[in-house]
Amino acid sequence: MDDQDASRRLFLIKSLTGVSAAWLALRMPEIVAAQEHAHQAVQSSAPVKFEFLSPEQAVEIEAVAAQIIPADDTPGAREARVIYFIDRALSTFDKERQPLYVKGLKDLQAKQKKMFKNAAKFSELNSEQQIRVLKAFEKNQFFEIVRAHTIMGFFSDPSYGGNYDKIGWKLIGFKDEFYFKPPFGYYDREYKETQ
Amino acid sequence: MIGDGLFMNIQLPKFDSQTQVDFVVIGAGAAGGVIAKELSAAGFQVVVLEQGPYLKEKDFDHDEIKTLWQNALTNDWKTQPNSFRKTTNAKATVQPSVLYGRMVGGGTTHFTANYWRFREIDFIERSKLGAISGTGFDDWPIIYAELEPYYTKAEWDLGVSGQPGPMDSPRSKPYPLPPLPIKSAGALLATGARTLGWHSQPAPMAIISQPYRGRSACSHCGFCEGFGCEIKAKSSTLATVFPEAEKTGRCEIRSGSYVRKIETDAAGRVTGVIYFDQKKTEVFQRAKAVVLCANGAETARLLLLSKSNLFPNGLANSSGFVGKYLMFNGGGFATGVFEHELNEFKSVAVTRITHQFYDSDPKRGFYGGGGIDLRFDVYPMGFALGGGLPREAPRWGAEYKKIVKDSYTRSVFSFGHTTSLPMERNSISLDPTAKDAWGLPVLRVTYKDHPDDLKIMKFFSDRGMELLDAAGAKKKWAGPVEEQTFGVHLLGTCRMGNDPKRSVVNKFHRAHDVPNLFICDGSSFVTSGRGQPTCTIQALAYRAADNIARMAKNGEIKSG
Predict the structure, then answer these.
(1) How many alpha carbons fall within 13 Å on the CB side of residue B513?
(2) By three-state DSSP, how is residue B336 classified?
(3) Residues in Cβ contact with B492 at an 8 Å cutoff, skipping those fewer than 6 apart
(4) CATH topology of domain B1-59+70-83+99-111+116-154+236-318+493-560
(5) E-strand spans in B448-550?
(6) Rounded distance, CA B39 to CA B46, Å?
(7) Is A107 helix (H, G, I), strand (E, B) or coil?
(8) I need a labelling partner for B516 at 20 to 30 A (CA). Which of A65, A160, B249, B350 fits?
(9) Do B384 and A11 count as a contact with CB atoms less than 8 A apart?
(10) If you compute the radius of gyration of chain B from its CA atoms, what whole number of angstroms results?
(11) What is the ipTM of this complex?
């Protein structure tokens, strides 16, 4: 149990003051279950098998995703395992986009071969070259979908396969926690002092 | 008060469909919950038919994809498409045009929980301001004072946190709970308003700031808007009145029940309701009277679907007003980025509001008014996909990553909630060709904002820019005001009134044409108010239930 869990439980006891002990006893398991519910996101540390993408396709898509949200001083889409989110989306709720991916990837490779004759694959280009290809390629539906899936995979609940170790949420300062207490931010803290 | 854990051994009733129950309530939302509870507590048998599921707190989570993108709590356009057109002579195209809570609890389960009363002026604007040509702008058949006891009842029965503001209409009792703790957006609103000489006040919220009636207080997790509350701190009908209704032993809630027709006899009285159960099998439930609370879109659609030889234009539609005068409310937006962290992802969406520009001011040269709050109601994924970034922001790459990183915890929206004028051309009707998964005509929306509606949105967007500036925003912007093609507040489509030729229900929500049919939800509204309809929908529901129960006890509702 980490500090957050301890503070959640403490809060619950406090918030229920005035409610009968019988009520508490009856409800506690369900309340705790509800709290834990949101935190049971599946966090697989071992690589997952791809369901739709071939390993070769996955390498290419991941290279695109890693340009959409690149690693710099903080991790990017590759480190957040966005590719697993994309594969899962394409084998479940976004199944209908499978053909778009297959065709889009071919189009991308055609574009890349035109621009850089010596490289067989997008993933083999250096970063600067990849950016040049994508800038020439960004105004089409396939790029839009990969962009959307990358962002979704980076910022959605880790149970969908991406946002590994909450990399996306950490980047923007978001925390998915059951309990926060005031002050919540800078201005409400200041407001109390100046009121 | 005691929690519902002690009542697990109560036998929930299962009425036979051939049994003529006292009431069928259609729609388990803001109004349906209140009416089901009040009527069952008054001793009547009630069957509640709800098309959505009966979820519990354990079913709710913080999953943005499931809840907001896959419509876990709302109508799903895959099975229930909508169509849309701007004008009555255009052909509608199939596209999402309305969103509503589709589950036991309805919109109150997933709403932001802003809980503003209307003010005295809202009921009498036509008398005060005069007619507006080309519109159905009118007074309500009731005044604020008649509804006030029911506003108080709603606030105390359901649990509302707040503190009266300097410009509120009179109230007979204070709020039952103190305001929720101020957030940074609230502090910035209060500071900015003070600088500008505007008033501000704590936001009235249907979220409990302290333990109340066996429910625990808000834990500030931040997942209110669009999500179901996991600890019953949001005062939805799911968490409040539905459990109370079930405890009477006289209320049966049938989820997964999709009503296709309200049936009438040769005398023009309602005899019951035909619905599809979860297996899409048709069931006819007999009832002495029906209370229709299916929201301002589905209520009108169902009445139009319920046409018969006696009611060729749809049930309760001799006025021709069923589905007409649809009002969405409008929004005037601005976005600001601040130097320090606000962390608006924490706690309830809204903690301070200003009603400085509530009233319509003839000096502006157009009709309209509203209220403003500051909030940042986008979750990480929706934000990063662009909902909260400037339009010209980079869309991918290192620069994109930087702007996303720097702005999520420092951004806030100014949200102006504005009036919509009632226009006959704005309507809910049946699409002539498109069908839903049950083979029924889909809901067709015809909507074009009145020019004044667009002007008031722009006015509030401008006030938002001023407010953000006064609060010290480092950067701020506002997009252009656009005509609305999508509604979340569904109001006015069965308006109440004293004249049967110009309204659908009377001041007690009884259909003018059908003595044992009552209609109470957003459809009853005569004017739109200022963007927060739920409190008034529920006050109307308490008042309607009071009158329906009295009439039923006095034998004044003759059944079919």
Answers:
(1) 22
(2) strand
(3) B296, B324, B325, B326, B327, B422, B522, B523, B525, B526, B527, B528
(4) FAD/NAD(P)-binding domain (3.50.50)
(5) 475-477, 517-519
(6) 7
(7) helix
(8) B249
(9) no
(10) 23
(11) 0.94
CB contact under 8 A, B184 and A185: yes
CA distance B545 to B351: 31
Name the nearest CA neighbour of B96 among B447, B330, B376.
B447
Substitution target from A78, A184, A191, A194 for chain B, most B beta carbons within 10 A: A184
CATH 1.20.1250 at B160-225+330-418+450-483, yes or no: no
Q: For residues B22 and B290, what is the distance between their CA atoms, to the nearest angstrom?
A: 8
Residues shown for chain B: 560
Q: How far apart are CA B510 and CA B522, in angstroms?
A: 15
Residue B338 has which token pair?
A: 């601040």
Dist. CA A39–CA A158, nearest whole Å: 10
* Among chain A residues, CA nearest to B183: A188
C-alpha distance from B513 to closest chain A C-alpha (Å): 46
Structure tokens of A39? 């935190």
In this complex, the residue of A23, A131, A187 whose CB is nearest that of residue B188 is A187
Tokens 């976005």 -> residue? B335
Q: In chain B, what residues touch A4 (CB-CB under 8 Å)?
A: none
pLDDT tens, A6-39?
444 444 443 433 333 333 344 444 443 433 332 3
Chain A residues near residue B60 by CB distance under 8 angstroms: 34, 37
Domain boundaries, chain B: 1-59+70-83+99-111+116-154+236-318+493-560, 160-225+330-418+450-483
Candidate from B62, B185, B231 with C-beta closest to A31 = B231
Task: Report the residue of chain B nearest A93, measured CA to CA.
Answer: B70
Distance CA B366, CA B15 (A): 54
Q: A107 vs A101, A110, A144, B516, CA distance in Å?
A: 10, 5, 14, 64
CA dihedral B232, B233, B235, B236 (to 10 degrees): -40
Domains B1-59+70-83+99-111+116-154+236-318+493-560 and B160-225+330-418+450-483 share a fold: no
- The Cα A137–Cα A122 span in angstroms is 12
| 8 Å CB contact of B211 and A177 | no
Q: Say how far apart CA B297 and CA B525 lie, in whole Å.
A: 13
> Which one of A34, A72, A171 has the shortest CB-CB distance to B231?
A34
What are the Cα distances from residue B37, in Å, to A79, A92, B163, B557?
52, 40, 27, 19
Interface test with B, best of A10, A188, A191 (most B CBs within 10 A): A188
In chain B (560 residues long), the average pLDDT of successive 10-residue segments reads 49 90 98 98 98 96 93 95 97 97 98 98 98 98 98 98 95 98 98 97 98 97 97 98 97 98 97 97 98 98 98 98 98 97 98 98 98 96 93 96 98 98 98 98 98 98 98 96 96 98 98 98 98 98 98 92
CB B500 within 8 A of CB B409: no
CB B421 within 8 A of CB B452: yes
CB-CB contact of B65 with B71 (8 Å): no
The most distant pair of C-alpha atoms in chain A lies apart, rounded to whole Å, by 76
Residue with tokens 């895959």: B78
Q: Look at A67 and B64 and tell me if their CB atoms are within 8 Å.
A: no
- For chain B, the maximum distance between any two Cα atoms, rounded to a whole number of angstroms, is 73
Nearest to A18 among B60, B211, B221 (CB): B211
What are the chain B neighbours of A148 within 8 Å (beta carbons)?
385
pTM: 0.92
**A and B: number of Cβ contacts within 8 A:** 183
Asked whether the beta carbons of residue A156 and residue B64 sit closer than 8 angstroms, the reply is yes
| Cβ-contact B70, A93 below 8 angstroms | yes
DSSP bridge pairs for B444: B83, B429
Cβ distance B348 to B221 under 8 Å? no
